[in-house]
Design brief:
3% of the residues lie in helices and 49% in strands. The protein contains one helix and 13 strands. The strands form three sheets. It has a five-stranded antiparallel sheet with strand order 1-2-9-4-7. The protein has a five-stranded antiparallel sheet with strand order 3-10-11-12-13, with no helix packed on it. A hairpin with a 5-residue loop joins strand 12 and strand 13. The N and C termini lie far apart (33 Å). The mean pLDDT is 95.
């Protein structure tokens, strides 16, 4: 058995105000578990994305999260759970005035096949993006795979 206190898990760089990789701290092998706190305007991820090899479940503990999908928006209130099947595109965000606290669970734990879509001002369209650490290692850049333009950073 493994047990951790969420506040004792170190945060990691993300588009959310706070992301704690709880599954790593617990040593989970077949499931990813992440604790999130989103300030107003924050997102769970830097763009509309899918995992072709992983399903994701989000439990919203407090606040209200809005998930954008290719079929429209889904509002998830405190105490509600939403599931995205492998291949479903989604981007969760906090459109409200109060903080969102949520857990995200993904299975299998490691997702190696996915796609991240964002608007690229240089290409003038929604294109595939990916992320890389900056040279100093203190930020993550989100960049267009078509033209290599950086379209966002996370610290």
């Amino acid at each position: 058995m493994e047990k951790v206190t969420i506040d004792d898990v170190d945060g990691r760089i993300s588009s959310a105000d706070l992301t704690r990789p709880v599954g790593d701290a617990l040593g989970t092998e077949d499931m990813a578990i992440n604790y999130y706190e989103l300030a107003p305007g924050d997102t769970f991820s830097p763009g509309l994305h899918t995992h072709f090899d992983q399903e994701e479940v989000f439990y919203v503990q407090s606040g209200t999260a809005t998930f954008e999908t290719k079929d429209g928006s889904v509002v998830v209130e405190a105490g509600e759970i939403v599931r995205f099947a492998p291949g479903d595109y989604q981007m969760g965000k906090n459109d409200g005035d109060e903080r969102v606290v949520a857990l995200a669970l993904g299975a299998p734990g490691e997702s190696e096949d996915g796609e991240l879509l964002r608007n690229c001002p240089e290409c003038g369209a929604q294109t595939q993006h990916w992320m890389r650490m900056t040279d100093g290692g203190d930020e993550v850049e989100v960049y267009c795979l078509t033209c290599d333009t950086v379209t966002g950073t996370m610290d």
